[in-house]
Amino acid sequence: MKQKTVLMLTCLSAGAFASDNIVDIEAIKAGMKYEVYGKIALQAHVRDYENSPNLEGFQTNNESRIGFRGSKQFAKFKPLFIWQIESGYVDPSYKNHEASGGLGERDTFVGFEDWDSFGQIRLGRVLTPMYEIVDWPGANPGMGDVWDWGGLIGGAKFQDRSSNTVRWDSPEWGGLSVDLGYGRTKAAAVGNDQGWWQGGAAHYKVGPFLVSGAYELNRNTKETLSYEKPGTTEKKVSDSRIWDNNTYLASLQGWFDNGISFFTQYRWQDASVTSGIDTGRKEKQNALSSAIMYDIADWQFKLGYAKNEELHVNGKKLAGTDDDVISFQAMYYVDPTAVLYFRARDVRMGDNKVPVRGGQDVAYRRWKSDSFNEVSVGVEYVF
């Protein structure tokens, strides 16, 4: 009976909405805009790994995606209502080739904007202010393995594209703009921890330069570790701990009339254990990323370098835990909306073994990619 009632109400509501006698269709369409957009992006590469021969050889990285976005000017509310829903990548390389690219996997939100007053506010799944700078320009060309998701520090140095987020972007005030965000972590969304984050970024344009700074704190994120415990018959022991993290970033970009441009970024990261095994443990690891570009006619040449410095645990440096990548890219604009490119890079990843407790020999391994070199070609078309 309840299902029939709901069905009747739904049908009546739909009928009323579609009736020109009750609803003015032209009024509904007034102030409404929407578009389909996306990117066709395919990279074919060959890798040579240091210790993972099973991964070597040819693979493709299909980052093609599609999205829908629009706006509506409400009749009795001045700020513009905005919305977006965007799919994920169709088939990233080194994945298990299961169905991917579902709608909502990338930036998907609702919000309001009025750039003459408060700016823009969004609620849903968006980039964090910190990660927006980390991802672009800091991770290009092909430096994300080190600069983006690389490193060894405990906890969560930053979120990336985060659901359960509210983000505010200010208008530009004489060259200055500000972004602020707050949200819950992915694990907290399903009750695996009580994690949350908040952060912000500021940007200032002066002449040919853009100066940016960002900060993000992550609290109450959980780490589960498995290791062999001396003096027990068990092969593996599982423990957990809760981390708090602070991450700071400074960035400088410049563009010049002679075709040369550059960026350089430096990131300071610290983490501390607030409860669980080895409470009071403190870790630090800093990182840098830089690139120089030269544009001539329809070509762009780009050389980039990124590095994670060695991890410090309770003030002691763990030698050999640093990583770096050097990458070269030549890109040709075959159309204002499309490029072809060639890229070669060498990724060197250091040791991923860390002590279970500060000052003890018992150790376990945190995830880190193997070292490799890569040659690739790709195409990107934006529509």
UniProtKB/TrEMBL annotation:
A cellular component term, taken from the record's GO annotations: cell outer membrane
Gene3D superfamilies named in the record: Porin
UniProt record, GO biological process: monoatomic ion transmembrane transport
Signal sequence segment: 1-18
Localization in the cell: Cell outer membrane
Keyword check for Cytoplasm: no
Pfam families named in the record: Porin_4 (PF13609)
Lineage top rank: taxon: Bacteria
Main localization of the protein described in the UniProt heading: membrane
Protein name: Porin
GO molecular function: porin activity
UniProt-listed InterPro entries: Gram-neg_bact_OMP, Gram_neg_porin_domain, Porin_dom_sf, Porin_Gram-ve
Domain Porin: 6-345
Keyword tags: Membrane, Signal
Membrane topology: Multi-pass membrane protein
